[in-house]
Amino acid sequence: MTDQLEPVDETTKYKRKIDDSLARFSAAHDELEAEERERRERRDKLVARFEQTRTKLHRVVTVATSVVGQRGSAPVQEPEAEADEDASKAAPQTRLQEKKERRNHRTLLAARITAITLAVLVFIATGIAWGAKTWFNSQFNEIAALDENSADIQNAQGQLGDENFLIVGSDTREGAEAEENVGDASGIPGARSDTVMLAHIPKDRKRAVVISFPRDLEISRPDCERWDSASGEYGEVVEAADGVKLNSAFTVGGPRCVTKVIQQISGMAINHFVGIDFHGFKGMVDAVGGVTVHVDEPMEDQELGLIIAETGDVVLKGDQALNFVRARKVYGDPTFSDYGRMQRQQEFMASLLRATLSRDVLLDVGKLTGFVNAFAASTFGENIGVDQLLTLAQSMQGLSAGAVEFMTVPTVGEANDAGNEVLREADTEALFRALIDNTPLPGEEPEKPGPGAGDQQAADGTEPPEPA
């Protein structure tokens, strides 16, 4: 080393450069050695962890193999026992045994990697599905409608697990565009319930019953909060009224009021409300590629004109689909009234639900997203989401197999002096009592006992045992 205070000449400068280079080299060497030491420590830890994991995995596999091996002639020994036995024998492994052991280790490692990969894929798929479901649910327009603690509900305990959807089709023109050809809110203000359906799916999910209520059904409307169809908000209380039409309940009190009325009539616990208006309805139909209906002859309405010129199975889209469910005075319809329209609406709803639940829609992200967006734009309600709508749609899937029955609430069939349809109260009570108690509907035959049940009763005079 040189002294920094000695005279500086070329030789001194050269020595200093050498000293600096040696110092930098020494520092770099020390740093590299420290890094190498850290790498060795990390590698040793990883090796130790790997050996621990491999040992645990080997023990689990060995124990599992021993369980299977118990079916054979001799059980498999525990790893510790095998190790002791091997040590006592001290028999050297042959090259073939070593090769077999290495192959077994590779197989175990591959199985472990495969299991981890599958677990990760399942986790990712579950996360994606949960995110999509959350997004779908967030699109629906929630409006207060239910009264699940109503005193009008009969045998509430017996209805636990049942799914009752009140589906109301509203003729509100709020938000409708001129090209939709349904008018606007300035010309036709407010909202009326042109369609009222109660879809009942019992707890056992073995059937579904959809009951339609005429818009002109005479009711006694209870006290209801006034509803603003434009804002979806409730206001002051409107006093009860007798002898009014069912569609006026929605006009005055919106979803809450019509739910109260239907619960009064039926005694059923309504736990889902789905309101559908004209705005966006055509988008729902078009999003699934149209809805197929069957017509035996061209369909022409007194007010809407020619709706369908073809016969047979016809795919309806846009305005044609909307006119199909709106038409009330169809030539050739024996009822020439709201009853014929209710039947067509039931057919259309079932077909729409089947189309929505088809593989062509569920497996097509574009179609499914388009339907959800159109549904969100044209619907509102309470307790509606992906799970609830799938329950409804899957139940409607059984239509072709006879698992879904469409009905109209029993009425006298003729309008009274006020132009209202009047309920047949005894028949109505019997119908809804059967739904609440999950017994055969009026006119249905009870299920026949299984083979041999009658023989047992005839032989010993006892009743056949109840099914488990």
TrEMBL record:
Gene3D superfamilies referenced in this protein's UniProt entry, alphabetically: LCP protein (3.40.630.190)
Region of interest: Disordered: 69-102, 437-468
Record's keyword terms, sorted: Membrane, Transmembrane, Transmembrane helix
Residue ranges annotated for the Cell envelope-related transcriptional attenuator domain, each copy included: 192-355
Keyword Transmembrane helix: yes
Keyword Cell cycle: no
Recorded superkingdom: Bacteria
Membrane-spanning parts: 109-132
Family per similarity comment: Belongs to the LytR/CpsA/Psr (LCP) family.
The protein, known as: Transcriptional regulator
Organism field: Prauserella flavalba
